[in-house]
What we know:
The structure is a homodimer.
Chain A: E1 3-9, E2 22-28, E3 36-45, H1 49-54, E4 74-81, E5 91-94, E6 101-105, E7 112-114, H2 131-144, E8 151-155, H3 160-171, E9 175-180, H4 183-191, E10 197-200, H5 207-217, E11 222-227, H6 232-240, E12 241-249, H7 267-271, E13 275-278, H8 288-300, E14 308-312, H9 317-325, E15 332-336
Parallel strand pairs in A: 8-9, 8-11, 9-10, 11-12, 12-13, 14-15
Antiparallel strand pairs in A: 1-2, 3-4, 3-6, 3-15, 4-5, 5-7
Amino acid sequence: xxxxxxxxxxxxxQGEAAVSNFKLVEVDTPxxxxxxxLVRNHYLSLDPYMRGRMNDGKSYAQPQALxxxxxxxxxxxxxxxxxxxxQAGDQVVGMGGWQTFSVVDAGVPGMLxxxxxxxxxxxxxxxxxGMPGVTAWYGLVKIINPxxxxxxxxxxxxGAVGSAFAALAKARGCRVVGIAGGPEKCAYATAxxxxxxxxxxxxxNDLKAMNKALKEACPNGIDGYFENVGGYILDAVLxxxxxxxxxxxxxxxxxYDGAPLPLQNPALILxxxxxxxxxxxxxxMEVWPEALTELGxxxxxxxxxxxxxxxxxxxxxxxxxxxxxxxxNFGKQLVKLI
Amino acid sequence: xxxxxxxxxxxxxQGEAAVSNFKLVEVDTPxxxxxxxLVRNHYLSLDPYMRGRMNDGKSYAQPQALxxxxxxxxxxxxxxxxxxxxQAGDQVVGMGGWQTFSVVDAGVPGMLxxxxxxxxxxxxxxxxxGMPGVTAWYGLVKIINPxxxxxxxxxxxxGAVGSAFAALAKARGCRVVGIAGGPEKCAYATAxxxxxxxxxxxxxNDLKAMNKALKEACPNGIDGYFENVGGYILDAVLxxxxxxxxxxxxxxxxxYDGAPLPLQNPALILxxxxxxxxxxxxxxMEVWPEALTELGxxxxxxxxxxxxxxxxxxxxxxxxxxxxxxxxNFGKQLVKLI
Lengths: 338, 338
């Protein structure tokens, strides 16, 4: 059996996460038992939710166990199979974790899924046509549920979720405004991703400035907001929200390091008769087929052309992950494992 | 025509509202035009939303105009009618304002409604079987939508909304926990209003103490919260909320005086996958018939026996209103005008 390289959670962060929280090890891959499949992972997905798992506190998911490989989505190829539905050479998506090989109980529902790479590149199944894409779909379609002509806003606009959000919202006739960090990302958002406008939060770096920028970018106010960040941007959105605006709460990156970020004026939720809804997409598996079909179609039509940031080699996964938390990635953050 | 006593908004509050913001005047009642009705108001309803109207800022409703009688719900008796659907002696509910007589354009939908006092006292149409009752109904039924066995919590528990909320939630098989100020109100909540438990916020007057009290009163966590107050109580509720808990935002009294009350940890909305929804019941007229029918039935069956705080005479309306904002009322706050 091949040797397997793994990145383990070695210890929990005190405040900011650091490279020293992780540990790279090499182990043997065990012999397969009946029903198991050995997958050579080609790409590992890095996502903000992983930061939450590193903590021990109350959250929607179990904390990541110490001494175990970090959890994470992967795409790869079946090397060996003792499950009748899979065979060597199959391209698959699953939750292989931060490791170069995974042994998967392929019969457990949701563990491993074959994918077709005829029209969609393999790595996209970790992004636009995977969990981030479905996340954007759920927040837009099931929570914001916009009418044509409404204005919707998304933070972390050039990331995997934001890119998909823009394509899905444009397909519904919305005005789509992004918020991203830096002129390069903002230019990319409007030139490549279809955003009608994009606000640079590094320039508009406080409540007053963001409020002004949103007022200009959203002359008819804000009807829907997809929240990936938290903090003063959400406060500013509330100041520009129309009556009956909807907020899909998907991420609060800035708060993961332990410092709670207050919402300055929650009375605006009442004053504007708004709806806030937090969600995690893995609890809504019933929408995945419909969402993946639409996302795959948008990719095949060239209407969704997400960018990827690819780190090379599993040994660089921790550094790439910390960069993601600080917004250093540009598009979907992946680690290429082969 | 009789002389009409009115309380006008004379000037807007700077911070806390004060008696000096109001002015009592006496004017002639004008002669009726075709389609108009003259109503002798018997009771005026005092409600927290009126504080919001006194400000000039952005809110869901137009600010109360200066030099005009304060807006407000009233019940009374028709004195004279030039509208075919009303005649002298009819008992009616409407938005007569802070005055002893109202001239009403009775043909405008929603302005004036005849009521039946056979089983329901006239004043109840301003409370349990009126706007506050429907408010409780909407938040509970349309937003919280509880299943039997779930735990729901309401602040301002012994007020008109809270009383109705308790009866409606008990009818749905919920555990109902109230939050109120002082041992007398808490004892009344459990002895008379059907609450399973009631927490005294004067004793549990910070986040930590309220969190502990909620933990004891809600051993299975909180599935629904009806927010009438804002501030640290909402923060504490979030700490005890179950996954998929729903919050109906109806009032934020403590914030009306201008000081915004932050929500300390909005990331909990995401972590608990909660739903927050702000509403004002006058925008949901379609539910009123169903809600009023259920509320009237609960009153007739003796399952909803709300208490009333009655101030005597329109000249005492401002003082009673300020007391309401400070929680000095006990049950529905009314002003008796005759």
